[in-house]
Design brief:
The protein is mainly alpha-helical. It has a single domain, classed as Substrate Binding Domain Of Dnak, Chain:A, Domain 2 (Up-down Bundle), CATH 1.20.1270.390. Helices cover 85% and strands 0% of the residues. α2 packs antiparallel against α4 and α2 runs parallel beside α5. The termini are far apart. The relative contact order is 0.12.
């Protein structure tokens, strides 16, 4: 019984790999890349952006060669890289803002110390 089940699973997986995926998967990946660009990915996460674009292009070429399973995998990887670029951009922007506020606080502290001397703590 077990070998028959294994054969059926293998045949099912083999059949899935020959089914052409919906072209919508490319639209979703391209939208993820555009969202990453809008979030500042080209500035703050250029490596991830390059990976996202390259994987999407390779996936499109794979579709032409009927390598559907590999193409679907690469599209997913492209989306993941775009999402990573978005998060890295958000982190970098937050870090930049924190550094600006820290510098502002230090300037304010120095100004108060200059004005009030040792009385300010």
């Amino acid at each position: 019984m077990k070998p028959i089940l294994i054969v059926l699973v293998c045949l099912t997986l083999a059949a899935c790999s020959t089914v052409r995926p919906d072209p919508e998967i490319f639209v979703v990946a391209e939208q993820a890349i555009q969202a990453a660009v809008a979030a500042g990915g080209d500035e703050f996460a250029p490596v991830e952006m390059r990976f996202a674009r390259e994987k999407l292009e390779v996936a499109k070429k794979g579709m032409e060669k009927e390598k559907y399973q590999v193409s679907m995998y690469l599209v997913e990887e492209s989306e993941i890289n775009a999402e990573l670029a978005i998060e890295k951009s958000r982190t970098a922007k937050t870090r930049r803002r924190v550094n600006e506020l820290r510098k502002s606080n230090e300037e304010l502290d120095a100004s108060l110390r200059a004005t009030f001397g040792g009385e300010f703590k």
